[in-house]
Amino acid sequence: MTWLWQSLYHAAAMLWETLWALVFGFSLSAGLQVFLRNEQITKRLGRAGFREVALATFFGAVSSSCSYAAAATAKTVFKKGAALVPALAFMFASTNLVLELAFILCLLLGWKFLLAEIVGAFILIAIMWLLVKLTLPESLVAEARAHNDDEEKSGGHSHGPHHAEKNDEPFLKKIRRGKNWRRVADAFVMDVSMLWKEILLGFLIAGFLMALVPDDWWKKLFIAHGNNFLRLIENAVVGPLIAVASFVCSVGNIPLAGLLWSSGISFGGVLSFIYADLIILPLIFIYRKYYGTRAAIYITAILFVSMVGAGIIVDLLFGACGLIPRVRPPSAIARASFQWNYTTWLDFAAILLSGCFLWLRFRRRT
User: Distance between CA 235 and CA 231 in Å, rounded?
Assistant: First the structure.
């Protein structure tokens, strides 16, 4: 039973290491729902222009969120009136252009992978922008927003009432009103209660994969030799498919990316795998909850094609510049563990913040 305890331990350790990011992301989402007016979001991100996409990418990069919380925040931004491309750009930047990911990526895979990840992120957003512009049906946007409204109203929580409040109240006045912070607590609890099963399942499966799957098994999933162009495409396609099956999200997929690189997957395949934390199965189910089945399929397909395309382009670009590492070191997959470090203090702060939200949420019932 050693493997079982190891799996549970690593799942719990990964959850502990990302707890602060989860709480921060859901808190940001709750604050957006309560404090930002529809007109503010629509004015800044309501179009799919260069300025709006650039702003969404910047806001995502500084939000420092995990995949699940980024999806929740992007849903809120989209519901407030943002166009689909800025919402997706925000979600992608929240998980792939953040400092904690950059630090771990550089530590485990080196600066060349970090540079490629950043360059590829902007290429991916450009591909995604073009694909949406060419293929998005207008009816799908209306359908997704209507589905969001239905989900909010059917939840029985207090998201709805704040729409009935004066929506033109100045921001500084809104943050001084105690009842608005109670609405933030309501929104926080609702988002967590809706997604906790998917989050827990994702960490558990990741823990089992890390403990049970032999290193050699990964080598059978992708072409390691033969025609270079065929290998480039196949590896870039297989990378996201491995991510979908692995359930590993956000920063947690970097150790597994190091395992894939040492096992022989291509440079672009590693990048497409790292990007694919937004299309793991739990998140696809979450997209269905947020936007409906048809919109979830469309978003997943757009993200998948963009991830594969970005991986291929960056591989070709860095290969031409001689920036692809020639040495594949032995697997340095990091086993998550409980340690007394800065993450511990961030988690303590996250637990305290969660406790404050719970106190605000349930104080009226006692």
Answer: 6
CB 254, CB 114: distance < 8 Å: no
Copy the structure tokens of residue 341.
């470090």
Cα dihedral 177→180→185→189 (10° resolution): 170
Q: Counting beta carbons within 10 angstroms of the beta carbon of residue 270, is it exposed (0 to 12), middle (13 to 18) or buried (19 or more)?
A: buried
Q: Is-contact 85 53, C-beta < 8 A?
A: yes
Q: CA distances (Å), 234 to each of 35, 120, 221, 238, in order?
A: 46, 18, 10, 6
pLDDT of 57-88, one tens digit each?
A: 887 776 655 677 788 888 888 887 888 899 89
Task: Give domain limits for the chain.
Answer: 2-365
Alpha carbon distance 173, 169 (integer Å): 7
C-alpha dist (Å) from residue 139 to 49, 82, 251, 264: 20, 15, 35, 43
Distance in angstroms (rounded) separating the CA atoms of residues 213 and 10: 14
CA 357 to CA 352: how far, in whole Å? 9
User: What pTM was estimated for this model as a whole?
Assistant: 0.71
Q: Which two tokens stand for residue 125?
A: 């957003």
- Per-residue pLDDT reduced to its tens digit, 128-187: 999 999 999 888 988 888 885 644 554 444 333 344 344 555 556 666 667 778 878 887
Phi, psi of 57 (to 5 degrees): -65, -40
> Residues for the chain: how many in total?
366
Spatial CA neighbour of 259 closest among 220, 310, 208, 216:
216
Q: State the Rg of the chain over Cα.
A: 21
Strands (E), 293-359: none
How far is it, in rounded angstroms, from Cα 149 to Cα 77? 13
